[in-house]
Specification:
The protein is mostly helical and 220 residues long. The protein contains nine helices and no strands.
Length: 220
């Protein structure tokens, strides 16, 4: 006698729509900012355009180009967290589309609050220009990082076999690029950081360590 078993398949149609949305936003960036997108995609190799673009936008670092890439970051990072939860079962509330939307909201809120908290502290201590300089470098390198991660994320999403292995490779590449990003940001701003060491330590404590500590406290 054959025993009937219920087979549950994960519905991945909405994931394809997420990748389609990322592609649409990326296409918009390429149409309106073709040269700048190319320069952003090669920042890890050459950073000579950082000073040029910062010189043009130091008083307006939040613009359409950065906004479009922020949306791409938001969608891609949330998908990365979604797949980590899907593979390793951290919480059942992030297992579907509603869970993914919660992740999008949480990631967006985290980055927004961190930026505005930093801006508030920069205004208090009168270091807005220095703050904008470091934030501009960090955001630019993070845009580059996401562009490099996207192909690995697609492979992780649509590989039928060895899905967990591909995702671990994606996380490894992400970790390497994050380390490279922080090294380049520190190297590019070494003089600025050395001359403003107190503010840099305050920045690390208030905007880097504290948010991570809060997240770990809430999740562990």
């Amino acid at each position: 006698m054959f025993e009937a078993k219920e087979i549950i398949h994960q519905n991945n149609h909405w994931i394809s729509l997420v990748f389609l949305a990322i592609l649409i936003f990326l296409t918009l960036v390429k149409v309106f900012y073709k040269d700048r997108l190319l320069h952003t995609a090669t920042l890890f190799i050459s950073n000579k355009y950082l000073l040029i673009y910062f010189g043009k936008e130091k008083n307006d670092i939040i613009n359409l180009f950065q906004f479009l890439l922020f949306i791409i970051q938001l969608l891609a990072l949330s998908l990365l967290f979604y797949y980590a939860n899907y593979l390793w079962h951290f919480s059942s509330k992030f297992d579907d589309l509603n869970g993914y939307l919660l992740l999008v909201g949480g990631v967006g809120l985290y980055f927004s609050l961190r930026y505005f908290m930093g801006l508030f502290l920069a205004e208090i201590f009168n270091i807005k220009n220095k703050y904008n300089r470091i934030v501009y470098d960090k955001v630019s390198y993070f845009n580059n990082l996401i562009l490099w991660i996207l192909p690995f994320l697609v492979l992780s999403a649509y590989t039928a076999i060895y899905k967990e292995l591909f995702f671990k490779i994606t996380l490894l590449v992400l970790a390497i690029l994050l380390i490279l990003r922080y090294s380049l940001v520190l190297g590019n701003n070494k003089k600025l950081i050395t001359n403003n060491l107190f503010y840099f330590i305050l920045y690390l404590c208030a905007l880097e360590i504290v948010p991570l500590a809060i997240i770990l406290k809430l999740t562990i």
